[in-house]
Design a protein that fits this description.
The protein is α+β, with helices and mostly antiparallel strands. The chain has 14 helices and 32 strands. The strands form eight sheets. Strands 10, 11, 12, 13, 14, 15, 16 and 17 form an eight-stranded antiparallel sheet that branches. Helix 4 packs antiparallel against helix 5 and helix 7 runs parallel beside helix 9. It starts with a helix and ends with a strand.
Length: 633
């Protein structure tokens, strides 16, 4: 079918609202085979942009996990152990020996024709929708989603899925079928997620329904394959890196028509996938398409090194569908290397290093970047042939109002900074601090605390660290307890008691209100582990007590809200850095103290800062220092 005929068909659709079986009837003059030929041409013209990662080690990895998943259902820990074993056996070979095989070299006519025929059969159902031929080609027809091995998955998922949506067959509106189909198949995905620290090769789509535990990619691909098999337009969207935390993320979307899309995750109602991620900032979101995208194609054909993220020209920028964006012009360093580049990139920080998220075209000493997410710190970079990212300009904050604020350290003007954390202070941590407010520390001589005396009360808690309260205790008592405020679920990580000599008195036993969540029993309040906590099933009436070996006079109480262990820890080694224009340069090394607060002198103003814990931990975030506070990015 010639392009002008496709345009004609789509025009008729827009004007009359014809269903797809009527579209095919409209094309009777050229017959249905012409539409199939046009679809086949679409697939073949874009085929060279796609590939599979292949090798004996990948086959071995998949075979091993297939064997594991074929056994009766096991525990999550069993599957995690199996993945680790498979990676120990095959991981090194996967990384060293795997090869990319372009689809033009491996696609067979049998697989291609089978996909086309099955896709058309579903598209020709009266209840499969009103979307046009172009939409069909982009979001239903493609035979692959990622770089998984090729397979004839469509026929399988049609056979399995069609009976589950038979009750939708008579629906007159596309929405009934699209949303009903999603509800029918997504609710079946109940397997667990394993956030692996190593690369695992993608499964063939026809074997994904056997996976009992996988990563987000596996469930996203499975949902998209099932939806497309049943005629529902679907695609994968992904953020290559969040703007204010580590990791990338990917998810599935359904696209009932050209103007509507709904993101969803594993067992999520439509659109709910981002509710729990509202605190994350989004620099870029791309959609994985089958067709080559014009400007991406220009980038991929550039005679200069480009980041792996942009090696294949099939990414569509959909950032403005998810967040407010703006186009920005960024100043570049005036070096020969940078001025020789046609393309420059923006990177965001992933807790340890910079990661590319966007590309832009250089013009003179500036570069234009389109549809950029706001309230994010970016670093302009270029890419070497070894995938190294070299700074091409100063980092900058793109503010909520779309203004660029360069972060150029002013070494002529210095300041003293107060540091309490090395990682961002999240809404959840603020809530956990708030949950302790109103909590009381009491002493008594009766075990039932009928004669209790409140010796200290928690007022306002603004920081997630240890806090010390003096008491009003004027004599000795046998029992001590923490009485949590209403709505707090008892949440507290640590409570320490000190006598008038600054010593911690010995205790005989612990007791109090039970009904803990899992292992978060009341004993966790006194175990010395900052990452465990007291956590009740019920929001009110939580308390945890100890009995002293002998009656004690408590002169001081030290407490720690439930936390993430990213506060300043006593005895641990820290180093503060600032971005000097090309790298993070050291300002000072210091040791954490009992107060959980570090003061550092001679810090440049307007600097991008990073606090690193050399003792332990991985979570670190860049920040600026404004109005006496750490501001996280």
């Amino acid at each position: 079918m010639l392009p002008f005929l496709v345009a004609c068909v789509n025009k008729h659709l827009d004007e009359s609202g014809l269903k797809n079986h009527e579209i095919l009837a409209l094309c009777e003059g050229t017959d249905r085979s012409s539409l199939k030929e046009e679809a086949k041409r679409f697939l073949m013209e874009n085929m060279d942009a796609h590939y599979s990662v292949s090798g004996d080690a990948i086959d071995g990895f998949h075979h091993y996990m297939d064997t594991i998943f074929s056994l009766p259902t096991k525990s999550d820990s069993y599957y995690r152990g199996a993945y680790d074993t498979a990676y120990m056996r095959y991981g090194e070979s996967i990384m060293n020996d795997a090869v990319e095989i372009n689809d033009t070299a491996q696609m067979t006519s049998e697989i291609l024709d089978s996909h086309i025929e099955a896709a058309f059969n579903m598209w020709n159902q009266q209840w499969s929708g009103r979307y046009d031929f172009e939409h069909f080609c982009n979001y239903v027809l493609p035979y692959r989603i990622d770089d998984e091995p090729l397979s004839d998955w469509r026929t399988k998922y049609i056979a399995e899925g069609l009976p589950k949506v038979a009750h939708l067959k008579e629906s007159q509106d596309n929405a009934f079928y699209v949303y009903g189909t999603l509800a029918a198949i997504n609710k079946e995905i109940t397997e667990g997620l394993y956030y692996m620290s190593y690369y695992t090769p993608p499964y063939p789509l026809d074997r994904l329904d056997k996976v009992r535990m996988g990563i987000c990619r596996d469930y996203v691909n499975l949902n998209i394959a099932r939806l497309r098999a049943l005629g529902v337009p679907a695609a994968k969207d992904f953020a290559p890196q969040w703007g204010n935390r580590s990791l990338q993320h990917e998810w599935a979307v359904i696209l009932p028509d050209r103007d509507t899309f709904f993101p969803f995750g594993q067992n999520d109602p439509l659109g709910e996938h981002f509710f729990e991620r509202g605190e994350y900032t989004t620099p870029k979101v791309f959609r994985k398409m089958y067709a080559k995208q014009t400007e991406m194609k220009m980038l991929c054909e550039a005679a200069e090194p480009i980041p792996d993220l942009f090696r294949f020209p099939t990414l569509m920028d959909v950032t403005d569908k998810y967040t407010t964006t703006c186009n920005i012009v960024v100043n570049l360093f005036n070096t020969k290397e940078i001025m020789s580049r046609r393309w420059l990139y923006l990177a965001t920080f992933d807790n340890r290093e910079w990661r590319v998220v966007a590309w832009g075209k250089r013009k003179g000493g500036k570069a234009l970047f389109e549809k950029m997410g706001k309230s994010i710190v970016y670093l302009p970079v270029y890419c070497t042939e070894y995938q190294e990212l070299i700074p091409a300009g100063h980092p900058f904050l793109l503010s909520e109002d779309g203004v660029i604020h360069p972060l150029i350290a002013d070494t002529a003007h210095r300041q003293t900074v107060r540091l309490t954390r090395k990682y961002r202070f999240t809404y959840w941590l603020k809530e956990l601090c708030h949950r302790t407010e109103g909590g009381r520390f009491q002493v008594a001589n009766n075990e039932d605390f009928s004669d209790s005396v409140t010796i200290a009360t928690i007022d306002s808690v603004k920081e997630s660290r240890f806090h010390t309260l003096p008491t009003t205790c004027d004599t000795t008592y046998r029992y001590f307890r923490y009485l949590s405020p209403k709505g707090s679920y008892g949440n507290m990580a640590e409570v320490e008691m000190y006598d008038s000599l600054g010593q911690r008195p010995k205790t005989k036993r612990m007791f109090g209100m039970r009904y803990a969540v899992g292992t978060s029993r009341l004993e966790k309040l006194f175990d010395g582990d900052v990452l465990t906590c007291y956590n009740r099933q019920f929001p009110d009436d939580g308390w945890a007590a100890v009995e002293f070996e002998v009656p004690q006079h408590i002169s001081q109480v030290r407490f720690l809200p439930r936390n993430d262990d990213n506060f300043i820890r006593e005895g641990e080694q820290y180093e503060l850095y600032y971005w000097d224009g090309h790298r993070f340069a050291s300002i000072a090394r210091m040791e954490g103290n009992r107060e959980g607060v570090l003061y550092v002198d001679n810090v440049p103003t307007n600097a991008l800062l990073l606090l690193r814990n050399h003792t332990k931990g991985k979570e670190e975030r860049i920040f600026t220092y404004e109005n006496g506070e750490q501001v996280w990015w």
